[in-house]
Amino acid sequence: MSAAVKNGGDFAFTAANKKWAAGQIAKYPEGRQASAVMPLLTRAQDQNAGWLSTPAIEHVAEFLGMAAIRVLEVATFYSMYRLSPVGKHVIEICTTTPCWLRGSDAVVAAAKEELGIDFGETTSDGEFTLLEVECAGACVNAPVCAIHRKYYEDLDGDSIRAIIQSLRSGKEPDAGPQIERQKSAPVGGPTTLTEGA
Prior knowledge:
This protein is about 35% helix and about 10% strand. By secondary structure, it is of the alpha/beta class. The chain folds into two domains: about 15-75, NADH-quinone oxidoreductase subunit E (Arc Repressor Mutant, subunit A); about 90-175, Glutaredoxin, CATH 3.40.30.10. A six-stranded mixed beta sheet has the order 2-3-1-4-5-6, covered by helices on one side. Strand 2 (about 120) and strand 3 (about 130-135) form a beta hairpin. The longest helix is centred in the middle third of the chain and has 12 residues, at about 105-115.
């Protein structure tokens, strides 16, 4: 196993997760159980405080009858998998071109200042990890970040600070656009087809 993956102690699915994993595997034809590797890795990461240790990867491999290196290949390919411990709140800020054009630099600067950490670091209290990600796929609402699998959109420096402060106080801020916008509709509301049919 790669030295890049931290050990993290023993790992085994809980009884509930083991049952769930068996249900995932049952969705695939006989001999194709390896197709369930991504959902099982995600469940293992959730169970293991947000990251995949060497024992967690090996457990998933054993569960699926795969070589551990094959599971590691998946875990290292996708950015949603983390191979070292993370904070309670993982803030993933997109800095790809659409987000950058709409001000992600200001969002990044405010988040770094508010948290006192850089990308790839965790606060000393273990509460926050800050990560840079490639295209979050919500370009129309750029700049965006993801926290707890929820998207926070139309960000600026003030809104990312407010989100971080809410999380610090134990509140889950409302996801979605952080400006007056309905989901991904144009800012300011409809401009065409405004009359009744």
